[in-house]
């Protein structure tokens, strides 16, 4: 079945079929070699410079393993198995330079996220020709990889789009391995082996409860240690600012078609930002933006990062905080208020919160209670049960942690700390619980 194998540090040898080899050899997939999985996280974790390409191969491999496991409870055809692996391979095909950092800019100015771009890439690039040439319809792939609602067998869709899917299983162990952070070392084999189909949904055998709990803890700990590490986020903020200033000047959001989008990777952006010559722009506004972008990139290159002046951890579901986390206008209002109180230029104040577009995982994205689990009855039948009835740990983890940070220049740190503390005193009483 496999015509070639590649060596992967996580799984050993990963096989690929002839169809997968032909798809992998297209430019849209090869381009993922030039996009780092964790953006600029290597500024804190030097080993964390692995790419979307290696993650794509890993997700493909795990998707195939899950499909193999499910075959013990449902029939999955060879074509269905192949479709699932292709969906795992292509689930991140729509990411732009520096992954989630770029996605914030793309969402802001074009209203597009990486999943919407992924659908465009699969259906309107040479990928479509490669897939059709192998007998597969691009739309069948996009429905599995990017569709919000499953068409056909739900469990096939859930292999690449659920609370415990191939994407999340791979990125946790892969990001953990390359950053050197131990928290993501979960038992993928046990979780995959424990997966079965109940009705139309994938569920996990309660016998693997310890592995499921470890998975939940790993997501939480990796968020704190890696994805929302204070220095990682400080670097992301600078990168985002530079791309925001220059998005129109270097074509980050003005691409006319898929081919223009696919020209962009990490090297494209960093080269453009470093080589900016503001004097080339006659328009004063564009010249100013070019100056800001170039200066911000220079700060990032020298690791001259913004500093955390204020942080609050909120371990509670609160509508005010949720709005703050999701509404850029509200955050900007808080930045202006803090800057005014401190007597600092608003450009030097950043209220940073975890959102889906800015980091690969944030706590409000997952509710452990949404993970279906089952036990086997004395009659040998699978019965869906409430996870919370069997795990005290899950009951604790079902709440999420929201982190609010305020960043500024080192010289303004003390003033901003006082101003931010004063501004955020207005949070509702329940949200003022800081752990």
Number of helices: 20
Q: Main sheet?
A: 4 strands, mixed
Total count of strands: 9
Name the poorly predicted regions: 429-435
CATH class of the largest domain: Mainly Alpha
Query: What fraction strand?
Result: 5-15%
Structural class by helix and strand composition: alpha+beta
* The CATH homologous superfamily of the largest domain: Hypothetical protein af1432
Amino- and carboxy-terminal Cα gap: 52 Å
- Strand and helix order: EEHHHHHHHHHHHEEHHHHHEHHEEEHEH
* Count of the separate structural domains: 2
| Mean pLDDT rating | 90
Provide the gyration radius in Å.
23 Å
CATH architecture type of the largest domain: Orthogonal Bundle
Q: Percentage of helical residues?
A: 40-55%
What is the third-level CATH name, the topology of the largest domain?
A: Hypothetical protein af1432
User: What gross morphology would you assign?
Assistant: globular
**What spatial order of strands do you see in the largest sheet?**
3-4-7-8
How do the strands and helices of this protein lay out in sequence?
Blueprint: E1 4-8, E2 12-16, H1 18-24, H2 27-30, H3 52-70, H4 78-90, H5 100-110, H6 114-124, H7 126-133, H8 138-146, H9 154-158, H10 166-179, H11 188-193, E3 195-198, E4 201-205, H12 209-227, H13 230-246, H14 258-261, H15 266-274, H16 284-301, E5 307-314, H17 319-326, H18 328-342, E6 349-352, E7 373-376, E8 382-385, H19 392-397, E9 402-408, H20 413-423
Parallel strand pairs: 4-7
Antiparallel strand pairs: 1-2, 3-4, 5-9, 6-9, 7-8
